[in-house]
Amino acid sequence: MDIDDPRTTAMRKQILETKPFLWRIYDEWYRLLADDLPEGNEPVLELGSGAGFLKSYVPDLLTSEIFACPGVDVVLDGQQMPLADASLRGVVMTDVFHHVPNTRRFLAEAGRCVRPGGVIAMIEPWYSKWSQLIYTRLHHEPFRPEALTWEFAPTGPLSGSNQALAWLVFHRDRAIFEHEFPQWRIETIRPFMPFRYLISGGVSMRSLAPAFSFAAIRALENLLGPVAAMFAHIVLRRR
Fold it and tell me: Which of 41, 132, 153 is nearest to 89 (CA)?
């Protein structure tokens, strides 16, 4: 099926629910994102909610997607959000930031919608020698850490991407980011998870390990540290 077809997202949701090892990865990610959020009465917006279940961890979550999907609260584009100024206490996303064609427009728009003290929290692919090997050979999405700009052609809502985008913006070009977006302070960048997602098979391949091995593999990853990370946990705080 076409990756930009909403039915593909619905199918991924079914796959996620039937793969215990992969489900535990998302459970870990969602707990991290939920812990990142500040206290407050304002809602939290999730971008790219499609196949996920973050609402189980953040009860006042406003789920969204770029196209209509079952169970999603609103259809919107993170580059132009129909929300009032300072109306959110956070924007959260999992594997979504690298699909945003105009990063600057999103960061500015999130800066408008998130109140002071609020956050953008995300889990994103990350650059390492190991991750470059995996992403360029075993994944369909572009992985371009050598890209000269943050932008890329919007070929489709999900097919257009650069998986190295978070590394480009918040690591390689950090000085540029901090100069252009002083309203955002980088609070956390934690590269992690070199093997577990690969072993899980993701949403397109068969799992290579049973669910009961999850804790042991996670302990092994912790010993290796961030040198071979495939993902990063990133938090930006609104000044």
Answer: 41
If DSSP codes are grouped into helix, strand and coil, which group holds residue 81? Answer: coil
Cβ atoms of 55 and 45 within 8 Å: the answer is: no
Q: What is the pairing mode between strands 74-75 and 61-65?
A: parallel
Phi-psi region of 117 (alpha: psi -120 to 50; beta: other; left: phi over 0): left
What percent of the chain is helix, strand and coil (3-state, nearest 5)?
Answer: 40, 20, 40
* 32-36, 94-98, 121-125, 222-226, range with the lowest pLDDT: 222-226
Instruction: State whether residue 223 is helix, strand or coil.
Output: helix
112-139 residue pLDDT tens: 999 999 999 999 999 999 999 999 998 8
CA dihedral 66, 67, 72, 74 (to 10 degrees): 70
Chain Cα centroid distance, residue 203: 15
> According to DSSP H, which parts of 37-128 are helical?
103-113
Asked whether residue 7 carries a pLDDT value surpassing 80, the answer given is no
CA distance 78 to 157: 11
DSSP state of 39: P
Closest Cα partner for 163 from 212, 233, 231, 67? 231
